[in-house]
Automatic annotation (TrEMBL):
It is a single-pass type II membrane protein. InterPro entries: Iodothyronine_deiodinase (IPR000643), Iodothyronine_deiodinase_AS (IPR008261), Iodothyronine_deiodinase_I/III (IPR027252), Thioredoxin-like_sf (IPR036249). Keywords: Cell membrane, Endosome, Membrane, Oxidoreductase, Selenocysteine, Signal-anchor, Thyroid hormones biosynthesis, Transmembrane, Transmembrane helix. It catalyses: 3'-iodo-L-thyronine + iodide + A + H(+) = 3,3'-diiodo-L-thyronine + AH2; 3'-iodothyronamine + iodide + A + H(+) = 3,3'-diiodothyronamine + AH2; 3',5'-diiodo-L-thyronine + iodide + A + H(+) = 3,3',5'-triiodo-L-thyronine + AH2; 3',5'-diiodothyronamine + iodide + A + H(+) = 3,3',5'-triiodothyronamine + AH2. GO terms for cellular component: endosome membrane; plasma membrane. The gene is DIO3. One of its GO terms (molecular function) is thyroxine 5'-deiodinase activity. PANTHER family: IODOTHYRONINE DEIODINASE, THYROXINE 5-DEIODINASE. Its main location: membrane. GO terms for biological process: hormone biosynthetic process; thyroid hormone metabolic process. This is Iodothyronine deiodinase. Transmembrane segments: none annotated. It holds the Pfam family T4_deiodinase. It comes from Amphilophus citrinellus.
Length: 268
């Protein structure tokens, strides 16, 4: 019995070591970039370059105030956490969508992600938090997309753990200073802040075990589209991979496909 227990512990240790080795190069690259971004002259040049590649009004450029420290112990922990979730996520393009548990903010009722699907309509999942500047900056663009395509798809905002908690990796650019959630009530209270910003979307919160965040690798922010219980669109990790313009392009193509299919039926 002791041998079996020792074998399990050894297997877990080896798995953890292998994970660290696979993530280490990408993590070190991100750490070096954060260190360089603390030099304001470099930060301004990098942000300028990033802004040049984002000419869509749906994706306003990321802004980082000079007062924000990028290379800290808390920032390194956050980056490692996000990269690990992304690597271990179970949601993948073309595969079944994880049906994790979430809580409806207004009804305070526990449901599963796929319970929010209505018939054959695609479901857009928008993961983020109020302390995430890129997520909140693009929330107005997301709402414009919601208003434009609500007749053919449904939208679900999933509130996850804070990207920049006031007792963690603090960002002065965050519109709200919110500490880490200690209980579900904390998370529900934080999610209430964004209800007025997305009036046409359902808002849910992840459970305190962060199972939805882990399944979708959503931290800091991320977009997904689920159709027929499968992932048909998987956006990149935020902030750099979080693109409302990509979501709009997918929805516009979907609308065109619907129109074309209806036209073909009429001709038959």
């Amino acid at each position: 019995m002791m041998d079996d227990s020792g074998g399990v512990q050894m297997a877990k240790a080896l798995k953890h070591a292998a994970l660290c080795l696979m993530l280490l190069p990408r993590f070190l690259l991100a750490a070096i970039m954060l260190w360089l971004l603390d030099f304001l002259c470099i930060r301004k040049q990098v942000l300028l370059k990033m802004g040049e590649g984002q000419d869509s009004p749906d994706d306003p450029p990321v802004c980082v105030s000079d007062s924000n420290k990028m290379f800290t112990l808390e920032s390194l922990r956050a980056v490692w956490h996000g990269q690990k979730l992304d690597f271990l996520k179970s949601a993948h393009l073309g595969h079944p969508a994880p049906n994790t548990e979430v809580v409806l903010v207004q009804e305070r009722k526990q449901v599963r992600i796929l319970d929010c699907v209505k018939g054959k309509r695609p479901l857009i999942l928008n993961f983020g938090s109020c302390s995430c500047p890129p997520f909140m900056t693009r929330l107005a663009a997301f709402q414009r997309v919601v208003s434009q395509y609500a007749d053919i798809v449904d939208f679900l905002v999933v509130y996850i753990e804070e990207a920049h908690p006031s007792d963690g990796w603090v960002s002065s650019d965050a519109p709200y200073q919110i500490p880490k959630h200690r209980c579900l009530e904390d998370r529900l209270r934080a999610a209430q802040l964004m209800l007025t910003d997305v009036p046409e979307s359902n808002v849910v919160v992840d459970n305190m075990d962060n199972s939805c965040n882990a399944a979708y690798g959503a931290y800091f922010e991320r977009l997904y589209i689920v159709r027929d219980e499968k992932v048909v669109y998987q956006g990149g990790r935020g902030p750099e991979g979080y693109r409302i313009s990509e979501l709009r392009n997918w929805l516009e193509q979907y609308r065109n496909d619907l129109v074309n299919s209806q036209t073909a039926v009429l001709h038959v």
